[in-house]
Amino acid sequence: MAVCWRLTTIRTLFRTLPTAIFYTPLPLYIGAKFLLCDHHGGSLDRKWIPRTALLVNVGVPLTSSMAQMVPISGLVDLLFEHEVTERFSIGYDVGALWEEWAPAPDVFASLGVNFGPTDHLGLFLESYNIFDPDALDFATGKRYTHCNVNLDFGLTYAVHPRVQLDVNAGFNLYNSTPDLSGPKNFVFVGLGVTWLIWHPK
User: Fold this and answer.
1) How far apart are the C-alpha atoms of 129 and 12, rounded to whole Å?
2) Are strands 21-25 and 12-16 parallel, antiparallel or unpaired?
3) What are phi and psi of 61, to 5 degrees?
4) Which CATH architecture does the domain made up of 3-198 adopt?
5) Nearest to residue 175, comparing CAs of 163, 189, 186?
6) Which of 21, 27, 51, 79 is the most buried (most CB within 10 A)?
7) 3-state DSSP: the chain helix, strand, coil percent, rounded to 5?
8) Do 171 and 186 meet the contact criterion of CB atoms below 8 Å apart?
9) Which residues are 4's β-sheet partners?
10) Element (DSSP H or E) covering residue 67
11) Ramachandran angles phi, psi of 24, nearest 5°
12) What is the per-residue pLDDT across 98-137, written as a single tens digit (0 to 9) for each?
């Protein structure tokens, strides 16, 4: 089992209005990624088994004002990846996100493609979707069923065999948030760093 330490810098959320653009800083995410299963490069009869990993993250607000807007949160994500060729793969995942104010976790799932043109550079494109059956509308205090569909893309670069940098950006395709809660359309950008702590030889 391989273990990675994952640090994601503040992701900034840009929301659009007819007359203005404003942004919301998101928390610092710190976590670990555990490689549970990897048969890539093995016998042909086992190649259909996806590479499987578990990602555990904790979101920490960096300022007191941010803590009032975005509380401490936890994330558990089960990731799968099928290697189509040496340079191309298909990935998907399912997980849950807990927030202080939410009585139940959000459920999310994504589907994406990855392409590595070189041994150091990687490109990815994914649809990232969140479902909350008991979301809170802060404008009205009412609960509602929330669905959020996003598309994001980015690149990764291995600066060292054990260190990888990544940058990503994306935008919202569909958001079921009630109109009174504010603007629905937004884009986001983010940076991340991953350290490989241990990997079996």
Assistant:
1) 18
2) antiparallel
3) -65, 140
4) Beta Barrel (2.40)
5) 186
6) 27
7) 5, 65, 30
8) yes
9) 33, 196
10) helix 64-69
11) -125, 120
12) 876 666 788 989 999 999 999 999 999 999 898 887 777 7
